[in-house]
Amino acid sequence: MANEELNSGNPKVDIEYRRRKSAEEMRYQVVSFAMMIFLTFVAFIAVGYDISGWFTIPFILVLAIIQVGFQLYYFMHMSHKGHEAPALFLYSGVFVAFITLLAFVTIIWW
Amino acid sequence: MKADEKFTYETWPAAPEKQTLDGKNKFLGFWLFLGGETVLFATLFATYLALKDRVPNSDHYLAKDLFEIPLVFVMTMLLLTSSLTSVYAMYHMKNFNFKKMQLWLGITVLLGLAFLGFEVYEFNHYVHEYHHTFTSSAFGTAFYTLVGFHGAHVAFGLAWIITLMVRNAKRGLDLYTAPKFYVASLYWHFIDVVWVFIFTVVYLMGMVG
Asked: Start and end of every Heme-copper oxidase subunit III family profile domain (chain B) (predicted)?
C-alpha cells in the first residue's frame, strides 16, 4: 500500500509530505483540465473553419484520443501505482472496441 | 483496520479507497465494469457510424442539417467542468474534508443536471423542428440509442452521487464510505470519456459531413 511506505514513525513529517504531494497532484489536475479545454477549443475551431474533411476528421479524432488520455491518466489516476489490473481491463475493452468499430465501418455496406 | 473506525485528518490513510479488502475489490471490480462499458459504447458507436445519414428518402434531415456548434460546445464545457469538480471532491476526500467534498460533489451534480437539461432541449428540438425521431429512420434510431444511452448514464450517475451524498450526510468519511465516493467519481469521469468521443464522432464529424 502506498500509505504504508509513507509511515516514517513521525506523523507530522508524513502529513507535511502528503500535503505537498496532494498539492502537487492538484497542480497536475488543473494543468490537465487546461489542456483538455484547449484541445476541445482546437477541435471545435477546426470544424468551425471548415477545412477539408480529409484533414479535419483524423485531426479531431487524434485530439479526442489525447484528451481521453488526460482524463484516464490524471483525472482517473491511471498514472498512479497499482493500476495494472485496471489498465488490463480497460485496454482489453479498447481492443474489442477497436475490432467492433473496424468491422462496422469497413465490412458493412449498403 | 476496521471499516467503521473513526479517523482524524492525521490518521486518515493516503489511499483510503484501497485500505480495506472491500475497497480493493470495489476498485478492481469497477474497472472491470468500465472495460465492459467501453465495449458496450463501442457497439453503439459502431452501429451509429454504419447507419449515419441512412434515411429512407430526401425528406429526412441529415447530420449536417441537425447539429449546431454552440449547443454542443456548451454541453461539452459543462460536462468537462463537472469532471474537474469531481476531481476536487476526491482531493478533499483524500484530505479528510467531508464538507468540502460534499460541496464539490454538489457542484458536480448541478453541472450534470444542466448538461441533462440541454440534452432534453436538444432532443425535443430535433423531434419537433426536424421530425428526427427514434423511429423516423435508421439514422434516428442509431443516434438516439447512442446519445440517449450516454444521457441515461449521466442521469444514473447523478442519482448515484445524490444518493451517496444524502445517505452518508451524517456518517461522513470512513473506510466504508470512501471507496463508494471514489468509485462514483470514476464513473463520472468515464461519462466524460464517452462524451469526448460523442462530441467528436457524432457532432463534429457530423458537421464536417
From this structure: 28-207
Does residue B208 contact residue B72 with C-beta atoms inside 8 Å? no
Q: What is the largest CA-CA distance in chain A?
A: 70
| Reported ipTM | 0.90
Grid cell for residue A10: 513521525
pLDDT digits (tens, 9 = 90+) for B44-92: 999 999 999 999 999 999 999 999 999 999 999 999 999 999 999 999 9
Return the residue in A95, A104, A106 with the most chain B beta carbons within 10 A, the one to mutate for interface testing: A104
- Mean pLDDT of the B6-30 span: 92
Domain that holds residue A96: 80-110
Give the model confidence (pLDDT) of B151-195 as tens digits.
999 999 999 999 999 999 999 999 999 999 999 999 999 999 999
pLDDT of residue B17: 92
Q: What residue of B is the nearest CA neighbor of A6?
A: B14
Q: Are residues A58 and A86 in the same domain?
A: no
- C-alpha grid cell for residue A52? 477539408
Query: B137: closest CA among B47, B45, B54?
Result: B54
Identify the CA nearest to A78 among candidates A94, A97, A98: A94
Q: Which residues contact B9 (CB under 8 A, 6 or more apart)?
A: A15, B95, B96, B97
Q: Same structural domain for residues A108 and A65?
A: no
- B119 located within any domain: yes
- Interface A-B: count of C-beta contacts within 8 A: 137
